[in-house]
Amino acid sequence: MKCYWLRLFPEQPVQLRDERVIPAAALRGAIASILLSTCVPGHEHDAGPCSADCRYWSFFGERAASRISAAYAGTGDQTRPFLATARTCRHAPGFKVAGGHGVFDVAIRQWMFEEACGEPGRLLVPFSLRCPVCDAALMPCEGTFTQHGERDLTWVEDIAAPATMVHTSLGRTRKQIDERYPTSGRVINRGIYFTARIDVPERLDSLLHEAVADGLWIGGRRTRGMGAMRVELAPCPPDAPLEDRIARFNRAVRAERRFYAAMDPSAAPADEGEWYFTLDMADPVLPAYDAAPSIRPTPLTLPAVKAVRQWLSAEAVGGWHQAAGLPRRTQVGARGVVLYRVPAEVNRTAVEELLNFIESEGMGTGRERGYNAVTICDPFHLNVDPL
Ligand SMILES: [Zn+2]
Ligand SMILES: [Zn+2]
């Protein structure tokens, strides 16, 4: 597999439902429409390729295995939505460097607090989930952030400004304007660009470069001077290994536990050699079965591994099948964070192998469309103290 940042620099105003993100399905559709231009006209690709050298099928066909994520607008390649466990001060939101009271993650802290709070009266120092600076209530972080370095994060703001384009039709006889057709879009501000992550097998590498060489057209009103984007492909560095992320996450859990043990050894949650991991879903994960009783995905078939805390929200997803020319069915997906506990007696290597597998293959259906991508132990959870 080759992994790239697919950078999109808008050259025209754009019309997007949400200017912060180009959904994976829209990116896929934009690439598909370029590949389809050399296809047999009228062929419906839902059943198979139109010819032996069908470019669409080699890229998006059944065994093609190329993957595209959503593209988020930001000031750097590493731009993504805040996790469902990110919190900031309601009174002065934002990162400290930008003058806010800080942004931090509650996955470890909130859960451990609730564990220790079985008998809150016994806690010597009642720990509260409030702003450490002004004691105001907290709120979830909405939106996206760009990561420039491990502790150098910026909240993405001021993405675009409104733009109206007017097309006119001129009367032939009187040489006067008959009608005006205003179309409104958004002009993406200077310094902001969209980045998606794209994984392609080696054999499709040159086809990918060829497909995006002349740019992509994204969003609505593409025939009215909107949505043209210049494209750059840059090699994407690999993520930190799963084992390292799990180890760092569990070190943070143990540090939090020591905090409670120091306050009151008898009230602190006991350390029974268990370990934890999170399942982090920035984009919706669709359950594999329509009859699933819960939107919470089940990552492992090991009954001893239990979800102990979740921060989930449901989201309906649908879309359009470009090649088949049909709408896709609407499904309910989940996004958010789930914290799992693994008892000491469960074979650690087996669990890590399973987690490695779901991180590379995703969960449920629609992985190739950008759904069901999950991260295990996102390093953002380590920010238990405000940044
Ligand atoms: Zn074709
Ligand atoms: Zn505050």
Briefly say what this structure is.
The protein has 387 residues and is an alpha+beta fold.
Write out key terms for the chains shown.
single chain; Alpha-Beta Plaits; 6 helices; binds zinc ion; alpha+beta; 387 residues; seven-stranded antiparallel sheet
Largest sheet: 7 strands, antiparallel
Give the cofactors and ligands. zinc ion
Query: What is the share of helical residues?
Result: 10-25%
The value of Rg in angstroms is: 24 Å
CATH topology of the largest domain: Alpha-Beta Plaits
When the domains are counted, the total is: 2
CATH hierarchy, class of the largest domain: Alpha Beta
Topology order in helix (H) and strand (E) letters: EEHHEEEEEHEEEEEEHEEHEEEEEHE
Distance between the termini: 35 Å
Tell me the overall shape. globular
What count of helical segments does DSSP give? 6
| Mean pLDDT rating | 84
Topology, number of strands: 21
Strand proportion:
25-35%
pLDDT < 50 stretches = none
**Class by SSE composition:** alpha+beta
What CATH architecture of the largest domain would you give?
2-Layer Sandwich
Describe this protein's structure:
The chain is an alpha+beta fold and 387 residues long. The chain has two domains: 155 residues, 2-Layer Sandwich (Alpha-Beta Plaits); 141 residues, Alpha-Beta Plaits (2-Layer Sandwich). The protein is 19% helix and 32% strand. The chain has six helices and 21 strands. Strands 1, 2, 3, 4, 13, 14 and 15 form a seven-stranded antiparallel sheet that branches. Strands 17-20-16-21 form a four-stranded antiparallel sheet. Strand 11 and strand 12 form a beta hairpin. Helix 3 packs parallel to helix 5. The radius of gyration is 24 Å and the shape is globular. The chain binds zinc ion (ZN) (2 copies).
